[in-house]
Write a structure and sequence with these properties.
This is Heterokaryon incompatibility protein-domain-containing protein. The chain is built from four helices and three strands. The chain is of the alpha+beta class. The longest helix has 17 residues. The chain starts with 7 loop residues before the first strand and ends in a 12-residue tail after the last strand. The C terminus is likely disordered.
């Protein structure tokens, strides 16, 4: 797991605990508060065994097909700051195809605790053997 313990969170998936980066935690927390986005997400740092080079390389080779066949793809750049609006304006000004879920991104301070997710399949590399 990348990062220091203070930059990690714990997911509970079907009664098992998975450590994730603060960035993965923040995106899951943000998605949880936006139910219209759906409930099924593929997050590479969780779904791909980062310690297995063969699996990781194979999965990376599939990413083009995965993303191009996805109904929707969300990109998480982190929590908003006081300058996030400038980035959104630049994207709109350059006529990039952008659907902003949050027009006024603000920095947030949220507790970094465990998040419970039920009935989410666990990748084989994370299963308790």
């Amino acid at each position: 797991m990348w990062g220091t313990p203070g930059n990690q969170g714990t997911l509970e998936v079907d009664g098992k605990h998975i450590t994730v980066s603060k960035n993965a935690w923040e995106v899951l927390e943000a998605m949880q508060s936006r139910p219209k986005l759906g409930k099924l997400f593929w997050i590479d740092t969780v779904c791909i065994d980062q310690g297995n080079t063969k699996e990781r390389n194979h999965q990376v080779s599939l990413m083009r097909d995965i993303y191009s066949s996805a109904e929707k793809v969300y990109v998480w750049l982190g929590l908003g700051t006081s300058r996030s609006g400038y980035a959104m304006e630049m994207l709109r000004d350059n006529d990039l195809s952008l659907v902003a879920e949050d027009r006024d991104l603000k920095p947030e301070s949220t507790p970094f605790e465990s998040l419970k997710m039920e009935s989410c399949p666990i990748p084989n590399h994370l299963r308790i053997r």
